[in-house]
Design goal:
The complex is a heterodimer. By secondary structure, chain A is α/β, with parallel strands linked by helices. Chain A folds into 4 domains: about 180 residues, Rossmann fold, CATH 3.40.50.300; about 70 residues, no CATH class; about 170 residues, P-loop containing nucleotide triphosphate hydrolases (Rossmann fold), CATH 3.40.50.300; about 80 residues, no CATH class. Chain A has 17 helices and 24 strands. In chain A, the strands form 6 sheets. Chain A has a 6-stranded mixed sheet, sandwiched between helices. In chain A, strands 18-21-22-15-23-24 form a 6-stranded mixed sheet, with helices on both faces. In chain A, strands 2-1-4-5 form a 4-stranded antiparallel sheet, covered by helices on one side. In chain A, a hairpin with a 2-residue loop joins strand 19 and strand 20. In chain A, helix 4 crosses helix 5, helix 8 packs across helix 17 and helix 13 packs across helix 14. Chain B is mostly helical. Chain B has 2 domains: about 35 residues; about 300 residues, ABC transporter involved in vitamin B12 uptake, BtuC (Orthogonal Bundle). Chain B is built from 16 helices and 4 strands. The longest helix of chain B is centred in the C-terminal third of the chain and has 27 residues. Classes of the chains: A alpha/beta, B mainly alpha. The interface between A and B is large, with 67 and 49 residues. Chain B: This is ABC transporter permease. Chain B: Pfam families: BPD_transp_2 (PF02653). Chain B: It is found in: Cell membrane. Chain B: Its main location: membrane. Chain B: Keywords: Cell inner membrane, Cell membrane, Membrane, Transmembrane, Transmembrane helix, Transport.
Chain lengths: ~550, ~350
């Protein structure tokens, strides 16, 4: 088992006894004497040659809310999947209530009392709350489902949770917060004593978050342990007793929330990973912010999710948008690209006011988007690389009404060499490519426009390196910088702040649909400072 | 596939969007991307051609004495299937764009009635043809608007339209056949010949030719495929997906109205029954031809061969002396076998 280098906390004597938090009446102490609810030591897991987990330790006491933190790809999901019986670990020890376990199926894990509250709900909207709770294991009498028993049991569970829901209500008639409660009730109906919650507040409106927290408090009082996965420091301070940070498949920090300063947590999440060899120098493009901006946005408002947002982007400038999920980052991009409706505000491109009614208007004006969800929004996965590359340029490849395939091939060949995708891949179904190569295809289909005389003026990239390995990540970001140097205005949205820091000239921090802070490159001391700004911790 | 890469793949499938460690594993251990040739030469793409050849040879051997190979018999097959071929070309676009059009048979019947009645009352074939096309355009605009603008599933819209168009045809004609005496019309649509070729075959060949070029060589055709493959990604790439859906359904209905005129010309009558059930033959032909029912790809030539294949089986069974009930049973079984064989794993 490897001892993490940077950590001052890992393997330090596990805190025993009282809950360090000062929340009255919520102390887990009375139960902490027994064996921990979950204890994972030295857990390792590799997929093929790639080690995702290289020795993770996690100890969750009974009746404790334990926050699990880590950046994208740190290994959180894999670790939780081992606990849920989806994956089996290669090495290490997993104990539940002091018993060594090795789950071979999700069924085993459920039987051991482990419940999962999915981020994407596993519910059926057209069924009632009670039917959802008992889906697939409805109580029966004389071979028919016993609705009376089902409703009675559901009411019991919901009462225990302090949730005010009539179990006969059809789920689709309820707000999202109640869906989550139903999901939790479903787990509890299986006698779960350990609940895993993955980013439970990501999809909740703000006013429903506190409701969830009081439910978590209540569960803790009932001796149920919660593993709480979240990126939001403020939430963790409110709700969790202890925390564990993993990075690169190792535990790097663990301890009671009250004893670990948040700056320390952030530092552990971030680590020292950098994009190799990538550094934003001085913008090469002659024009700077002193000249007229390429893109100006004034008072952009869309529903509740974007409120009065105004900013400029100059030619050759890379603007970063930072913020948590739901802060309005994606919505701004979608408004500019004509996917979401703008309720108010104006967009100017090169000084001219622009009316964007749909993506075609945006593309015609020269605003293009590399969307957040590559598989759903970026690509027709069943089609070839070539077909995907040419899709936006079809209108310009014409010879009369027919498409000039020779020109198409030339265009593709040019893009492939520039992007370092093997040319043999042109006729490959795009769904077979790796995530990184898929993303290159999405970016290049927009670059293709410049070969038909319609070079993009504004390139927006929403989470461009999600699910992409580090080498390709660097390539992609280098490509973005090269495009900036040709004089385009670039907007990069990313949850990976190190990435923003390595490419952006300026970063806007968004919170609740508004620009919270504008940070110039020179204003940002380091990634931690930016992380703290995003988290709203001062 | 090696155990290792299978493991990586299953990890990939289970991974949540945020978990890029798994995708990374996937990147590293994935076998080198396969050469494109192998992807292209999948025999399943040619199942319909192979099936057609096999059945044709079997009939040629076993039904020789029944006159299967006579020129007249072969021309008969072609004549009987030509109208389905015409509709199957438009049907390929509909199914490739991930929609369905169940109203085409009824539209053909309605068009035949409207054409016959218009010619009877005006004495002009040209006005009759315009009226027939008008029927197609009107139905197509309604179908297209309801599906593309109001987002009602095409299955429901066109199922309702099947009833409405069929009912109007019955009502207008009062269940009676309407004879067409105009020989210019009947010669142009289905009865006459151009040189040695029946006009019906010319219409079918024209439809296939136009269909192949439009689907593969025009912006519209490729946007149809992109819309069917992934409407969201197509929209994010600047395709006006609603407009595409609208046009696909409009063209399908207009082509169905032309098919109705071909029935009217060939049989020299307008009658509400013409075209009844053709929507199912068209869907069978298109799917047999290798177009995915879920959209995203389309094979115009395959659809045409699929339509002829169904006609071929019909003809062979008639020659073999089976009765109608046996014919439709065997047809059903063959379609299931063919589609199952062509299904990609």
């Amino acid at each position: 088992m490897s001892v993490p280098r940077e950590s001052h906390w890992a393997h330090a004597s596990p805190p025993q006894g009282g809950d360090p938090n000062e929340r009255a009446g919520l102390q887990a102490a009375p139960h902490a004497a027994g064996p921990p609810a979950v204890s994972m030591t030295g857990v390792r897991k590799a997929f093929g040659k790639f080690e995702v987990l290289r020795g993770v330790d996690l100890e969750v006491k009974r009746g404790e809310v334990h926050a699990l933190l880590g950046g994208n790809g740190a290994g959180k999901s894999t670790l939780m999947k081992i606990l849920q019986g989806v994956h089996t670990h290669d090495a290490g020890r997993v104990e539940v209530d002091g018993q060594a376990v090795e789950f071979t199926s999700p069924h085993d894990a459920k039987a051991a009392g482990i419940g999962m509250v999915f981020q994407e709900f596993s519910l059926i909207p057209s069924l009632s709350v009670a039917r959802n709770i008992f889906l697939g294991r409805e109580p029966r009498r004389f071979g028919l489902t016993d609705d009376a028993t089902m409703i009675r049991k559901s009411t019991e569970i919901l009462d225990r949770m302090g949730a005010d829901i009539e179990p006969r209500t059809v789920l689709s008639d309820l707000p999202v917060g109640y869906w989550q409660l139903t999901e939790i009730a479903k787990a509890l109906s299986l006698d779960a004593r350990i609940l895993i919650m993955d980013e439970p507040t990501a999809s909740l409106p703000y006013h429903e978050v506190e409701q969830l927290f009081s439910l978590i408090d209540r569960l803790r009082d009932q001796d149920i342990s919660v593993i709480y996965i979240s990126h939001r420091m403020a939430e963790i301070e409110r709700v969790a007793d202890s925390l564990t940070v993993i990075r690169d498949g190792r535990t790097v920090l663990t301890g009671p929330v009250a004893e670990v300063p948040s700056a320390k947590v952030v530092e552990s999440i971030v680590g020292s990973e950098i994009l190799h060899g990538l550094k934003r120098g001085e913008p090469k493009f002659a024009s700077t912010r002193s000249s007229a901006p390429v893109l100006s946005i004034r008072g952009l408002t869309s529903g509740h999710r974007v409120q009065e947002v105004s900013f400029d982007v100059a030619a050759g400038e890379v603007l970063g948008l930072a913020g948590l999920i739901g802060s309005g980052r994606t919505e701004i991009a979608n408004c500019l690209f004509g996917i979401e409706r703008m309720d108010a505000g104006q967009v100017f491109l090169d000084g001219r006011s622009l009316r964007i009614r749909g993506p075609q208007d945006a593309i015609d004006a020269g605003i293009v988007l590399v969307p957040e969800d590559r598989a759903q929004q970026g690509l027709v996965l069943g089609h070839t690389v070539r077909t995907n590359l040419l899709l936006p340029s079809l209108g310009k490849l014409g010879r009369g009404p027919l498409i000039d395939d020779g020109r198409g091939s030339k265009l593709c060949a040019g893009l492939m060499s520039r992007l370092d995708i093997r040319a043999s891949a042109l006729n490959e179904t795009v769904g077979r490519l790796s995530g990184g190569n898929q993303q290159k295809v999405v970016i290049s289909k927009w670059l293709g426009l410049q070969h038909v005389g319609q070079a993009p003026r504004v390139l927006i990239l929403d989470e461009p390196t999600k699910g992409v390995d580090i080498a390709t990540k660097t390539e992609i970001m280098q490509l973005v910088l090269d495009i900036a140097d040709t004089g385009a205005a670039i907007i990069v949205i990313s949850s990976e702040l190190e990435e923003l820091l390595s490419v952006a000239d300026r970063v806007l921090v968004l919170r609740a649909g508004r620009i919270h802070e504008e940070l110039d490159r020179s204003d940002i001391a380091d990634e931690e400072a930016l992380q703290l700004a995003v988290q709203g911790v001062n | 596939m090696t155990t290792q890469s299978r493991d990586a793949q299953s990890a990939h499938q289970e991974s949540t969007p945020g978990a890029n460690a798994e995708s990374l594993a996937d990147d590293r251990s994935r076998p080198p991307e396969r050469p494109a040739l192998r992807a292209r030469l999948d025999w399943r793409d040619y199942a319909i051609y192979i099936g057609f050849a096999v059945v044709f040879c079997l009939f040629a051997i076993f039904l020789r004495d029944d006159g299967f190979l006579n020129t007249n018999n072969l021309l008969n097959i072609a004549r009987q299937t030509a109208i389905i071929v015409v509709m199957a070309v438009a049907g390929t676009f509909v199914i490739a764009s991930a929609q369905i059009d169940l109203s085409i048979g009824a539209v053909a019947g309605l068009s035949s009635v409207v054409v016959a009645m218009t010619i009877a009352s005006t004495g002009s074939a040209a006005i009759g043809i315009l009226a027939g096309l008008g029927v197609g355009a009107a139905v197509g605009i309604v179908n297209g608007t309801l599906v593309a603008l109001l987002r009602i599933p095409s299955f429901l819209v066109t199922l309702a339209m099947l009833g409405i168009a069929g009912g109007i045809a019955q009502w207008m004609s009062n269940f009676q056949p309407v004879p067409i005496l105009d020989t210019t019309f009947t010669n142009a649509f289905g009865s006459g010949e151009i040189g040695p070729a029946p006009t019906l075959l010319v219409w079918a060949a024209l439809a296939v030719g136009v269909g192949v070029v439009v689907l593969n060589k025009t912006r519209y055709g490729r946007q149809v495929l992109a819309t069917g493959g992934n409407a969201v990604a197509a929209q994010f790439s600047g395709v006006r997906t609603r407009r595409i859906t609208f046009y696909v359904l409009l063209v399908s209905a207009v082509v169905a109205s032309i098919a109705g005129m071909l029935y009217a010309g060939r049989l020299q009558t307008g009658r509400y029954q013409w075209g009844t059930g053709d929507e199912l033959s068209v869907i069978a032909a298109v799917v047999l031809g290798g177009t995915s029912l879920f959209g995203g790809n389309g094979r115009v030539v395959g659809s045409a061969v699929g339509a002829v294949f169904i006609g071929l089986i019909n003809n062979g069974l008639i020659l073999a002396g089976t009765d109608v009930s046996q014919q439709i049973i065997i047809q059903g079984v063959i379609i299931i076998i063919a589609v199952a064989l062509a299904k990609k794993k």
